Amino acid sequence: MKLATLKNGARDGQLVVVSRDLSRHLVVPAIAATLQQALDDWTRIAPRLQAEYQALNDGRRAGEPFDPARCAAPLPRAYQWLDASAYLNHVDLTRRARGGEMPPSFLTDPLMYQGASDDFMGPRDPITAASEDLGVDLEAEIVVITDDVPLGVDADDALQHIVLLGLVNDVTLRNVVLPELAKGFGFLQGKPASALSPVLVTPDELQPYWRGGKLHRSMQVWLNDRLIGQPQAGEEMQFHFGELIAHAARTRRLGAGTLLGSGTISNASDAAGVCCLVEARVREKLRDGEMRTPFLKHGDRVRIGMRDDSGASLFGDIDQVVEIPGTRPLPATAALETAEA
Q1: Could you say which residues of the chain have pLDDT below 50?
Q2: What distance in Å separates the CA atoms of residue 172 and residue 122, rounded to the nearest whole number?
Q3: Domains of the chain listed by start with CATH number
């Protein structure tokens, strides 16, 4: 089934069931008012939502026209947001561009950080920043949402705890990231709010693309209506989602509604394009010795989506305009540098 959250003036919005073709939605307050409420009691509530989803697709429920512009993030605020870097081609490129090498341990031990989860953007909300000097970048990723995950779960069992999948634009301020990491205490200012796709989808709806803990589809990324990337998400993912969940749950439980991102999707082939601008820049540096691609500017439009074999959208598109007025002075403490990370 496909689920979304409409803006209604409340912090967590209104849960709706969305038809398979993304044309209609159905409000289901008697079942669950919000997506987090459904996730908290998923075993009992999911079959009831599935029944309404089937009725909507069969025409037994009329529903209303579905408009992604009315959507908040499916989870406007969540208990936990974890983001991995499972596409090691991206890691390798950025490190080589700085004259470094990727440690061998990265092949066996996933990279992951815990980010802010209190303010996810809706799929049509603008990307805002104080200044273009911050190096505003997009990152197109897959995200999974779990039910309650036990401490020490193994990778195969972890796959059974994935209840929904979607897309995320993990916005990054590139010129803030490296100075922050140099402090030795992780991201904070360099990772503002991320945007989620209009709908989240249960794994059964994604067959035959969802297999082995990976989503075997290409991710399309457009910048100002120009296709800049269409890498395959399943082919060069070093760790599948079960392995990523097991890594996160090695020393703690994960609560229902945990979001876990794949990291920027990246393929070795230049023909696949890119899912973030920093990768375009480091490819230019490695090939030509200089970076030409600019980071996002005021007025730029970013669109991220994934389609099935017939061309139908699986999750709806993230479609955002960049708003950077450029008039607010940066904090005096901001130590900015040209960063490729």
Answers
A1: 329-330, 332-341
A2: 17
A3: 1-72 (no CATH), 75-323 (3.90.850.10)
Beta-bridge partners for 166? 143
- The closest of 277, 279, 283, 237 to 261, measured between CA atoms, is 237
pLDDT of residue 113: 95
SS3 track for 1-28: CEEEEECCCCCCCEEEEECCCCCEEEEC
Q: What is the pLDDT of residues 307-334, one digit of tens each?
A: 999 999 999 999 999 999 865 544 544 4
Please give the structure tokens belonging to residue 34: 């919000």
Residue 217 φ then ψ, to 5°? -140, 160
CA distance 139 to 172: 7
Question: Is there a cis peptide before residue 208, judged by omega within 30 degrees of 0?
Answer: yes
CB burial readout 156-174, b (16+ within 10 A) else e: eebbebbbbbbbbbbbbbb
Helix (H) or strand (E) holding 305: strand 301-306
Closest CA to 166 of 310, 339, 305: 305
| pLDDT for position 325 | 83
Percent of the chain past pLDDT 70, that is, above it, reads 95
Nearest CA among 204, 198, 123, 116 for reference residue 162: 204
pLDDT per residue as tens digits for the range 84-95 = 999 999 988 988
Q: How buried is 184 (Cβ within 10 angstroms: 0-12 exposed, 13-18 middle, 19+ buried)?
A: exposed
- Identify the DSSP state of 315: S
Task: Provide the pLDDT for residue 326.
Answer: 67
| CA-based end-to-end distance of the chain | 36
Residue 335 is predicted with a pLDDT of 41
Residue 35: phi, psi to the nearest 5?
-65, -40
3-state secondary structure of 311: coil
Q: Please state, in angstroms and rounded to a whole number, the distance separating the CA atoms of residues 90 and 60.
A: 47
Closest by CA to 212, choosing from 258, 265, 145, 156, is 156
Tens-digit pLDDT profile for residues 94-108: 888 778 888 888 999
